[in-house]
Design goal:
Blueprint lengths: L2 E5 L4 E8 L2 E8 L4 H16 L8 E5 L5 H18 L3 E4 L1 H7 L8 E9 L2 E10 L3 E4 L4 E3 L12 E4 L1 H5 L9 E2 L11 H13 L22 H8 L8
């Protein structure tokens, strides 16, 4: 199975090629400029792998959640590449890719959290799955850190920059948080592996059917909401 993965949904701009011989990848953390970088990174990994786009079995597309602009770039890039080479695509969410980084070596439960800005996190719970890599427990969600719940019995691993942005998440019961986990971002390496598993399972779709996963339909606070956020809390009568 030969799979290209493309993801620009977060601060990370990453691409990877998964082959039987191993993974070739590029990863850059950047504030902006993903659209200008991603296709050059695709060309670089394909050249290093000695592959043409048409020789691939499919493309794993990072579909979010993340920044609205980044998600659109990721989906559009994957669609354009897939249409041009007549390839199927497999959607992989940012949170699935994060969870897969820790769902190994006997660890079978993970909570992935990304900083969604505006005082909120994107989060999702996952279990290890032999056939698909990871499987969700519940649905993706967005909300304040206080709304995050871990629907697990027993311990679970946390991963993602939501844990770094909102230290109150460290108090979740039965949470195991490895030292570097709160700095982790989604990586196309993991998306390529998940994509290969899902393509092998027959989950490839037409690129025209690929859709972004925004989770939240709002990109910014209104002026009134920003003013409310800055207002000191009301003093309750004693």
């Amino acid at each position: 199975m030969k799979v290209l993965a493309v993801d620009t949904a977060t601060e990370a701009c990453s691409v990877a090629v998964w082959t039987e011989a191993g993974v070739i990848a590029r990863f850059k953390e950047m504030g902006r400029g993903h659209a200008e970088e991603v296709l050059g990174m695709v060309e670089a990994v394909l050249q290093e792998a000695g592959l043409r786009l048409s020789a691939l079995d499919g493309i794993a597309a990072g579909v979010g959640p993340g920044s609205f602009t980044g998600v659109r770039i990721s989906v559009s890039a994957a669609q354009g590449l897939a249409f041009g080479a007549d390839l199927p695509v497999v959607p992989v969410t940012s949170l699935e890719a994060l969870a897969s980084q820790v769902l190994q070596d006997g660890i079978d439960q993970a909570l992935a959290c990304l900083d969604a800005r505006m005082g909120e996190v994107y989060w999702g719970a996952y279990r290890a799955d032999i056939k698909r890599g990871v499987t969700p427990v519940g649905t993706l969600a967005v909300g304040p850190a206080s709304s995050v719940l871990a629907p697990f019995q027993g311990s679970f691993h946390g991963i993602g920059r939501g844990f770094g942005a909102y230290p109150e998440l460290h108090g979740l019961p039965r949470l195991v948080l490895p030292p570097a986990a709160s700095h982790a971002l989604p990586d196309a390496r993991d998306m390529a592996r998940l994509g290969a598993l899902r393509l092998a399972a027959g989950e490839g779709i037409d690129p025209a059917d690929l859709t972004p996963v925004y989770v939240r339909d709002k990109v910014a606070l209104t002026e009134a909401e920003r003013a409310m956020a800055k207002r000191p809390p009301a003093v309750q009568p004693g």
